[in-house]
Amino acid sequence: MSGPEDPHQRLLAMSTIVNSIGMGMFLSAGTIFLIRSAGLSPTAAGFGLTVGSLAGFGAGVLIGDMADRRGSKKVLIGSMLLEALASVSLLLVHSLWPLFVVAAGAAVGRAGTVSARGAMIGVLAKEGKGAQLRTYLRAVTNVGIAVGTIGAAVVLALDTRAAYVTMILIDTSTFLLAAAILTRLPHFAPTRTAADEDSAEGKEHRWLALRDRSYLSLTAASSVASLQYFVLIQALPVWIVLRTSAPRWMAAMVLFLGAIIVAATQVPATRSITDSRSAARLLALSGPLFLVAWILMALSAGPAAWIAVTLLLIGIIVHSLAEVWQAAGTFELSFALAKPEAHGQYQGVMGLGHGLAEAVAPIIVIAMCVNWGKPGWIVLAVIVTVAGLLCALIERNWSRAQPPVKTGALATE
């Protein structure tokens, strides 16, 4: 997987992969740390993280807008430093109220990081090569998460206070190192200036993303489609342990195996994405693949262990390819449909929608896939498929509404 030639893009990619290692560790073992090391009950840990994360709703839009107006570099570094502070503060959490505060700080920092990084990607993407940069960043993100899950597996196997503290300190260090890497970048000029906003037109369109119906529709549809992430992270492990005869270690292998497959296939599987139309096409095609994958996973309940493992492995492979297509398509559309001067703000809106989906996902995927059983897997797959088709339809309508591109002859008249 060859990286971008531009040195600034390489620095962003390096920062992203370091940041993702910490993310992979905490995704895999963060909640277990709160239960086994901080002394919270499973209910309190889940409730505290959920309520605290609500503080991040809306923060991404405000911080992304700040990145557009003041330059993305300082805002992104500041957001990462806030995440580092929240991470190390977890070592002081032993009850519910401190968890609320720490989770709120982490949510605001995470929302700001996603939005400000989006603004930076918009600035760094070369003309006609934005899709390649975004695909590469998706790939290195999954590599980082896979590495992080390996570290988390070691921590969970040791299951000691010292191991959990070490994990938190490593997580904190990844934020600091990722921010330090970004200091080597030059200052990027704001994409919107105070003069722009002081004009009558600027004041009228201060919040471009919140007035953009096409983008708001894309955010809503893609947020529903993003429920697929939580099927693999939350529903499938529970399904494996409670409903199948597969060995329990399969539940621990799900996130790791999925991350490895996604990282390995991200670039070759999405080379066809060159514009918004090709991105929408792959996004629409991901839905039927999810349907196939989830039927295989549903069928793993009942048969002998070796059959269940075989069905699960094939299902994870198909699911991972579908995830690659959907994630890359959504990522590309989130930039293609945005106004170039307000990428941070637009990414904040997209993050807001996906954050809401993340908040309700555990209830939805557990209720449908685990409690309802096999029919629930199929119904959820149909919902995700329809959401992907709606994303493609939104792109088509948006594309038709764009002014025609002038030819060279017309441009010289």
Please sum up the structure shown.
This protein has helices at 7-36, 42-53, 59-70, 72-89, 96-124, 130-158, 161-182, 194-198, 200-204, 208-211, 213-225, 227-243, 249-269, 276-299, 305-336, 343-372, 374-401, 408-411.
Present the secondary structure layout.
Blueprint lengths: L6 H30 L5 H12 L5 H12 L1 H18 L6 H29 L5 H29 L2 H22 L11 H5 L1 H5 L3 H4 L1 H13 L1 H17 L5 H21 L6 H24 L5 H32 L6 H30 L1 H28 L6 H4 L2
Characterize the structure shown.
- This protein is an all-alpha fold.
- It folds into two domains: 1-185, MFS general substrate transporter like domains (Growth Hormone, Chain: A, Up-down Bundle); 208-401, MFS general substrate transporter like domains (Growth Hormone, Chain: A, Up-down Bundle), CATH 1.20.1250.20.
- It is built from 18 helices and no strands.
- The protein has helices spanning 7-36, 42-53, 59-70, 72-89, 96-124, 130-158, 161-182, 194-198, 200-204, 208-211, 213-225, 227-243, 249-269, 276-299, 305-336, 343-372, 374-401, 408-411.
- α1 runs antiparallel to α7 (161-182), α3 packs parallel to α5 and α11 (213-225) runs antiparallel to α15 (305-336).
- The protein is globular and about 60 Å long.
- The N and C termini lie far apart (44 Å).
- The model is unreliable at 407-413 (pLDDT under 50).
CATH topology of the largest domain: Growth Hormone, Chain: A
Low-confidence sequence ranges: 407-413
Compute the average pLDDT.
Answer: 85
* Number of H- or I-type helical stretches: 18
Total number of β-strand segments? 0
The rounded Rg comes to 21 Å
Proportion of strand residues: under 5%
Form type: globular
Estimated helix fraction: over 70%
User: What's the CATH H-level superfamily name of the largest domain?
Assistant: MFS general substrate transporter like domains
By secondary-structure content and strand pairing, the structural class works out as mainly alpha
Largest sheet geometry: none
CATH architect. name of the largest domain: Up-down Bundle
CATH class of the largest domain, named Mainly Alpha
Distance between the termini: 44 Å
Count structural domains.
Answer: 2
Order of helices and strands: HHHHHHHHHHHHHHHHHH
